[in-house]
Amino acid sequence: xxxxxxxxxxxxxxxxxxxxxxxxxxxxxxxxxxxxxxxxxxxxxxxxxxxxxxxxxxxxxxxxxxxxxxxxxxxxxxxxxxxxxxxxxxxxxxxxxxxxxxxxxxxxxxxxxxxxxxxxxxxxxxxxxxxxxxxxxxxxxxxxxxxxxxxxxxxxxxxxxxxxxxxxxxxxxxxxxxxxxxxxxxxxxxxxxxxxxxxxxxxxxxxxxxxxxxxxxxxxxxxxxxxxxxxxxxxxxxxxxxxxxxxxxxxxxxxxxxxxxxxxxxxxxxxxxxxxxxxxxxxxxxxxxxxxxxxxxxxxxxxxxx
Amino acid sequence: xxxxxxxxxxxxxxxxxxxxxxxxxxxxxxxxxxxxxxxxxxxxxxxxxxxxxxxxxxxxxxxxxxxxxxxxxxxxxxxxxxxxxxxxxxxxxxxxxxxxxxxxxxxxxxxxxxxxxxxxxxxxxxxxxxxxxxxxxxxxxxxxxxxxxxxxxxxxxxxxxxxxxxxxxxxxxxxxxxxxxxxxxxxxxxxxxxxxxxxxxxxxxxxxxxxxxxxxxxxxxxxxxxxxxxxxxxxxxxxxxxxxxxxxxxxxxxxxxxxxxxxxxxx
Lengths: 306, 267
Fold this sequence. Notes:
The structure holds two protein chains of two kinds.
Chain A: H1 3-11, H2 18-26, H3 30-59, E1 62-64, E2 71-76, H4 79-86, H5 88-122, H6 125-140, H7 143-154, H8 159-164, H9 179-204, H10 207-215, H11 220-248, H12 252-257, H13 263-271, H14 276-282, H15 284-299
Chain B: H1 5-32, H2 50-56, H3 59-92, H4 98-110, H5 113-127, H6 133-158, H7 162-169, H8 174-203, H9 208-211, H10 219-227, H11 233-246, H12 248-263
Helix pairs in contact in B: 1-11, 2-11, 3-6, 3-8, 3-10, 4-6, 6-8, 7-8, 8-12
């Protein structure tokens, strides 16, 4: 731009459009800018999400009309909590769900570690990229397709029975009745969610630390236990947030591959036809567990590894 | 520590075993798509392409695909706007409670899905909103926002501020700077965020079962219902086969847009 044209614009300034006048007016008003930016996303999350959670919490104390079966909003009652505390089955289901969630987490950690380690520290860059893609593909494959695939394998006349039959092992297998199915399929489903954070965590460990450990006389096992494990621990916790929360929140997989009910099944079954206040009260169990879990994970530094 | 040869071989074997475990079910279900028998028994006796035709001509499948595409597009649209606004606000301004906002955004995916579902359902009933596409979109958008937010804020953190300052120095106002400087540099982040969010919505069933109405069966809902009707299993097999093939697209696109790392941002 030449000097003359600058003068020209100075003299014959075009009329300012409304958006431009607004922009100029807003420019010094940082607080207002921030407010305008945050209004919609924050409004949505607070109103839709936190609002819904609040309604859910309230509805745990509402009364269910035994005659019509309708929920009476704002008719207060503790009936849902009474049935929860007195019902042996709810305790069993909760313990089963939490137990399987813990088992799935441990299984995934054990399965994920070798491949994550191989990807991060042994494989050549080309193999590493290929492996990342190979792990991502099943993660992106539709959730229900994966559950359904396992259902076809585990059911009577499926691949598993076909493999077990020649060894005379087909009989004790109960097909789609086993609780172990849920453990197996959930471990399968969440495995990539554990591999990827672990891989990222292992890759961040500088090689010099491992060399230093070796120089100071640390054997492979010592280096693993005292250098690698502590450094990768936050990533492990980050992965476990997924394996744990996704297991607690699932009701489709337990329904499709086993007949043992999970917390999610009780909530789903009661959410509209059964006893909605009971569903609401029961959902406080997974909420409480996850809030505590997230708080602990945050203290362990897992959020930086997400 | 340089891993010894036996350790390397053990790692190689373990990694191959894990990969085999990850792909085995997908291969099995893909083969079933060509199974000529209506009955599901391993191994398939004969192969056919017949079920593909049947699935293509199934009106319920077509409706479900349309519903899924609609829900995914609307939810992604909402998520793109809300996620970008939130990311700019958190990155460019310092204010009290900034950490809380990131936490609030993650909450819908950090809390178990069944909780989000039952909470939304109870609220829609209490407020009196009819279940339909709108309620599905509201549910999906709520957990899709964080995906866009994560992608956009990661990009903003990497970008230098100087081009924007240059734009302001040259007389560009806020809109011009966003439209001509910030916006284009966010382009691929918005694309991968939108893609991830669409895929998340397209695949969702845990929340969707709580928030959908009678006329809004999505693809996962159709599969869930059909799995329990032995007669419809051949169509489910075909859908499974197609969905496995389709899942290659986002991985391929995501790796092309910004390297293999971002594709993991689905997490």
